[in-house]
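My current task is to audit a protein record that another person submitted. Alongside the sequence sits a line of tokens, each denoting a local backbone shape. Please read both lines and tell me whether the tokens look consistent with the sequence. Do not assume that whoever made the record got everything right. Thanks in advance; the entry in question is below.
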Amino acid sequence: MDWSLDGLRDLVAGGMHAVRDCDASALATVSCLLLLFVWYCYRVGREQAASSPRSYRAGVLVPSSASLLAERGDGEGPQNGYAYCHSPECFRCTAHSEGRNQRLYHNLQEYAKRYTWAGMGRVHKGVRDQGRYLASRPSIQKPEVFFLPDLPTSPYFSREAQKHDVELLERSWPVLLAEFEAVHQTFSNCSLSPSQGWKANSTPHGEWHTFYLVNQGVSVPQNCRRCPRAYRILGSLRTFIGNNVFGNACFSVLSPGTLITEHYGPTNVRIRCHLGLKIPSSCELVVGGEPQCWAQGSCLLFDDSFLHTAFHEGSAEDGPRVVFMVDLWHPNVAAAERQALDYIFTPGR
């Protein structure tokens, strides 16, 4: 049966002709067809509206006002919890640039030609409709770069989600703590400098420093040489995202009195894992409105595409909160999809 708009018009016209003969079954048919016609118009209207949001024209994601400020250099403060670094190498900070969606689709087509389209249904759907997905996501979960549709969503994940890697990390807690202490300088002497491999992050209150072994899918050789055992542990993880821009591994340090602004992560294809190394009291992580506390020697898994924040309300005597942060694949992203996403989001592509 032809369910096009012209076909429905013909059916409605035929039904109206039968009404003149006062046929009861014809009246029921006309009523059903009218309802179907109204539903069809409603669906068409919704799809057109969703595919053409204010910030999405002709398949091109138009930069937001925040990203335009960043490109002009007018916005000096943090945006969504991190400072725009203006670096062409930083995928996250330049992800809002014009033409991104076309580049993603080109990368997917290139991958399919070189390998296969098999198993690419969700990835193709996500890349094709990325502008609509990002524009229509609810405020509780809104990844800023890439959304893979049809993934189960939850602010937190159980240890069983990536059991092998969780257990390996927890067994490695003494090793990771020792290597952290070897590279960490006390906050009192203010020696956490970029030349020593430390990165200062923008926060409204306090200090948040990170020591990256892998930053956006790229190893940091100087830091990896200083933490060789931690780097070997990363190589033993089965689900570590080490080959695309969504993968990171670092020591993350919050000083007492620090608040990280609420923000969203770049994608829902990963799970962020925090292994507690030093956890004083009065520290908390809030993801999707649900608070959780870290535990020393234990892993806490969460989806950072949900709105999240963290804070350390302890005193100077409590010392810093320290976690080893690793990005793992979402358990429901299939192997073929992981391979394709590694290709599409290869650093520098």
User: Anything to note?
Assistant: The chain has three domains: 5-51, 58-151+336-344, 156-333. The longest strand covers residues 270-278. The chain has a mean pLDDT of 80. Residues 146 and 267 are 5 Å apart (CA to CA).
